[in-house]
Amino acid sequence: MPEIAIAIPTFKRPASLGRLLGALEKLETDARVLVLVADNDAETHAGYDFCRAICARYRWPLDPLVAEERGIAQARNALVKAALRYPDVRLLAMIDDDEWPSPNWLAELVRVQASTGADVVAGSILFEGAHEKSRWAAGFDGSCDIRRPTGPVAMLEGAGNLLVTRACLDKLGEPWFDPAFALSGGEDRDFFERVKAAGGRFAWADEAVARGALPERRMTLDWVLRRAYAIGNADMRIFLKYRHEASAWLAEGAKIASALLLTPLLAVLLAAVPHRAADALRRFFRNLGKLAALMGRRAAPYGASHGD
């Protein structure tokens, strides 16, 4: 019986999914592995059909399903639920369909989890061509490599490269990812907040590398600003859910107000330095997203496929 389940949410990216599944066949591990794929496209389910076509010849047991209710949180919940049906599964690895892991990816996640005792371990994500393509966007979300030194960390950000213990998932209970973040993103950060509130611990595995492509659309200022707005919007919704102290509200309100007032001026003053001007605009849009959330507006960047 499998002891580690690898969970992949997918939506309208069969070519990327195929690349990921090919990379998973090259994993260097002695673990008994199961691969789960949740296709969130209930209409055409191209990812599900692709998996069914290769099941018989695939290296690992491959168990695809269709997550009919639209949303990234819903797809992740369907994957967790499917994994926990296997009684011997003790670890759940998550990786997104636009990434592909190094051969030692899973072994490194497992090694760091065993050495730290962490409930959740995240690995590094390196984007192909990031240094050459996006110098003006260096350090911006979604346009640069994501890595930290190996060891315990206070908090994590994303679920694109992750290992979670079964005990942690059992403790949280269903739904593991809040469906309110279905199309907005932020369901992963909300998950980490719940893990932390339940006494969970986090760690980073720098050598557990997943690689990702850097599409040309991410090289535009429009994409960077839309991304910043969506992140700010989700961050504020999470803040509203978990932070109830008056002091936290006052501090956050002051930060939003100062950013909205000062960053447009900074963008003008720094116009001759593209990276710094773009960073000022990015911070403006991130706080604009927070303000929108305070007014009850929800961003929905996952309302459409980003495609292959």
Write a brief structural summary.
With 308 residues, this protein is of the alpha/beta class.
Q: How would you describe this structure to a colleague?
A:
The protein folds into two domains: 4-217, Spore Coat Polysaccharide Biosynthesis Protein SpsA, Chain A; 220-303. Helices cover 44% and strands 18% of the residues. It has helices spanning 14-24, 46-54, 72-84, 105-116, 130-133, 166-172, 187-197, 221-242, 246-269, 274-294, and strands spanning 4-10, 33-39, 62-66, 91-95, 99-101, 120-127, 151-153, 161-165, 202-212. Strands 1, 2, 3, 4, 5, 6, 7, 8 and 9 form a nine-stranded mixed β-sheet that branches. The protein is globular.
Order of helices and strands: EHEHEHEEHEHEEHHEHHH
- Largest sheet, described in full? 9 strands, mixed
Whole-number mean pLDDT: 92
CATH topology of the largest domain: Spore Coat Polysaccharide Biosynthesis Protein SpsA, Chain A
Beta-strand content estimate: 15-25%
For the record, the CATH class of the largest domain is: Alpha Beta
**Second rung of CATH, namely the architecture of the largest domain:** Alpha-Beta Complex
- Using DSSP, what is the number of strands? 9
* Percentage of residues assigned to helices: 40-55%
- Can you tell me the overall shape? globular
Secondary structural class: alpha/beta
Query: How many domains, as an integer?
Result: 2
* Distance from first to last alpha carbon: 34 Å
Number of helices: 10
> What's the CATH superfamily of the largest domain, by name?
Spore Coat Polysaccharide Biosynthesis Protein SpsA, Chain A
Poorly predicted segments: none
Q: What value does the Rg take, in angstroms?
A: 20 Å
